[in-house]
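can u do me a favor
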C-alpha cells in the first residue's frame, strides 16, 4: 500500500521509516511518561532478569534497562538534532552568502572551509574536547562547526548553479539586496537537496555522537546515552548477555529508518529534475 504525499508516492519502505522515526520521537519526548523508572534509579541487583516490571532486565548497576533506553534515546536524538540544526544554520547560511556575493567573500569562505576540511575531524574533536571539556555546549558547537563545512560546500555548489539563472538576474536588475537574493531567490530553490542532506547529516551526527560517547568523550554519567550504554555493557557480551546489543540495535534501526526517508527524498528530487 502506498500513500500520496506532496504529489509523490510514499512506498512502504519510506512509510516504515517515517513510522519508526515518529515512534522514536514520541517515546523519547515522552520518556518521563513511558519509562517505569528513572534513568539513573537503582531498582534491583546487577543484571537482574526480565520480568513483568523490567521488560529488558537490569543493567550492570541494577538500573532498569528499558527506562535507560528511553532516556538514552531522548538524549541522543535531541543532541544530534541540535547539532544538525546549528550546523545547517551556519553552513547553509555561509554557502548561500558565498554563492550570492561571489568575489572576495566567496574566496575567503572557501579557504576557511578548505582549512577546516584539511584537519581530520575525529582528531580535531579529540583535541577540542580534551582541552575544553565535554560539556554539552562545547560538544554541540564543536561538532556543528566541523559538520557545517560539508553543508557549506553543498549549499555553495547548489547556490552557484542557481545564481546564474534568469530569475536571479532579474532580482539583481530590480535592485534587490543580497539578503533578498539569498532568502527569497536561492534558498527556496535549494531546499530539496538541503532537506535530503539534513537527513544524511543527522545520521552521521547521531552515529558520531554515539561513537564519542563510546570513547568517553560524549555524554557523561549518570546521564543515559546510547553510545555510552554500549560502552558500559560491552564487556558482558563475552558472558552471553544481550545488554550491549539493545542500545546498538536502537542506533542501527533509527539510522536505517532515516536513510529510507532520505532515499525517498532523493528519488523525488531526481524525478522532478527529469520532468
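np, heres the sequence
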Amino acid at each position: 500500500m502506498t500513500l500520496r504525499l506532496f504529489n509523490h508516492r510514499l512506498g512502504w519502505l519510506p512509510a516504515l521509516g517515517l513510522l519508526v522515526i515518529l515512534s522514536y520521537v514520541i517515546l523519547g519526548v515522552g520518556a518521563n511518561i513511558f519509562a517505569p523508572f528513572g534513568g539513573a534509579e537503582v531498582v534491583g541487583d546487577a543484571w537482574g532478569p526480565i520480568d513483568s516490571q523490567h521488560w529488558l532486565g537490569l543493567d550492570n548497576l541494577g538500573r532498569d534497562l528499558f527506562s535507560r533506553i528511553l532516556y538514552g534515546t531522548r538524549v541522543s536524538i535531541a543532541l544530534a538534532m541540535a547539532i544538525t540544526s546549528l550546523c545547517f544554520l551556519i553552513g547553509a547560511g555561509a554557502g548561500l552568502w558565498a554563492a550570492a556575493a561571489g568575489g572576495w567573500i566567496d574566496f575567503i569562505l572557501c579557504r576557511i572551509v578548505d582549512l577546516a576540511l584539511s584537519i581530520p575531524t575525529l582528531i580535531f574533536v579529540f583535541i577540542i574536547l580534551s582541552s575544553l571539556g565535554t560539556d554539552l555546549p562545547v560538544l554541540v558547537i564543536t561538532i556543528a562547526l566541523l559538520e557545517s563545512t560539508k553543508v557549506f560546500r553543498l549549499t555553495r555548489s547548489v547556490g552557484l548553479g542557481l545564481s546564474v539563472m534568469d530569475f536571479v538576474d532579474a532580482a539583481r536588475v530590480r535592485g534587490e539586496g543580497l539578503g533578498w537574493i539569498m532568502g527569497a531567490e536561492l534558498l527556496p530553490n535549494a531546499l530539496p537537496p538541503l532537506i535530503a542532506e539534513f537527513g544524511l547529516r543527522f545520521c552521521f551526527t547521531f552515529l558520531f555522537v554515539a561513537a564519542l560517547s563510546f570513547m568517553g568523550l560524549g555524554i557523561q554519567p549518570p546521564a543515559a546515552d546510547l553510545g555510552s550504554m554500549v560502552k558500559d555493557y560491552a564487556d558482558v557480551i563475552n558472558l552471553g548477555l544481550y545488554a550491549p546489543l539493545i542500545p546498538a540495535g536502537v542506533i542501527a534501526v533509527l539510522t536505517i529508518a532515516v536513510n529510507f526517508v532520505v532515499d525517498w527524498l532523493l528519488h523525488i528530487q531526481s524525478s522532478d529534475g527529469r520532468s
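The longest strand covers residues 3-5. hope that helps!!
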